[in-house]
Amino acid sequence: MNVYMLKDVEKVGIAGEIITVSAGFASNYLIPHKLAIQITPENEKNYKQKIHLVENRKEEVASKTSLLAQKIGSIEIKIKKPIHNDGKLYGAVSAQEIVDELAKNGVGISKNQVIFGKNIKEKGSHSVTIKLSSQLQPSVTVKVMAE
After folding, report:
1. Which end of the chain is more exposed for a tag (fewer CB within 10 A), N or C?
2. How much is the average pLDDT of 106-119?
3. How far is CA 147 from the centre of its chain?
4. The predicted structure's pLDDT at residue 35
5. In which band, very low, low, confident or very high, does the pLDDT at 54 lie, cut at 50, 70 and 90?
């Protein structure tokens, strides 16, 4: 079954493209969750025109996102937390703390875009990934220091 993707679905397709999926997957998941619309011979021409418009917008977004990725890659975040005598934190560094520090540097992201390799529970320098898109995932350096 051919469907036009309304939203990005990881490992399936990105918004604005026509893909072929099984009929069951489309009718049971993509269409009810408003992630895609079924392509019929009557509406196929309209959606093919939309693809060209979406491609132009994607190029603009990709250039803005790559600039944002470069900016994020150059930022070093410093977070002060209370620390035990052995160098471990009383808690862990949260995604919200990283979002707040990035906002101070002029980068607006949501906390679900922050991906930790492992929880930050020790002082020192750590690398945290920021997921801007499925292809662009820059890393930001987080330095945890004693309060």
Report:
1. C
2. 90
3. 31
4. 94
5. confident
Question: Could you tell me which of 96, 147, 139 has the C-alpha nearest to residue 123?
Answer: 147
Q: Look up residue 80 and give its DSSP letter.
A: E
CATH of domain 2-69: 3.40.5.10
Measured on CA atoms in the order 136, 137, 141, 145, is the torsion positive or negative? positive
Residue ranges of the chain assigned to CATH 3.10.430.100:
71-146
For residue 59, what pLDDT band results from cuts at 50, 70 and 90? confident
- d(CA 44, CA 50) in angstroms, rounded, equals 10
> Sheet of 36-38: strands edge to edge?
18-20, 2-5, 36-38
Q: Measuring CA to CA, which residue among 40, 38, 24, 31 is closest to residue 9?
A: 31
Q: What is the dotted CATH code of the domain comprising 71-146? A: 3.10.430.100
Query: Both tokens of residue 115?
Result: 């991906």
Q: Give the pLDDT confidence of 35-49 residue by residue, as tens digits.
A: 999 998 888 888 877
All CATH 3.40.5.10 domain ranges of the chain, comma separated, are 2-69
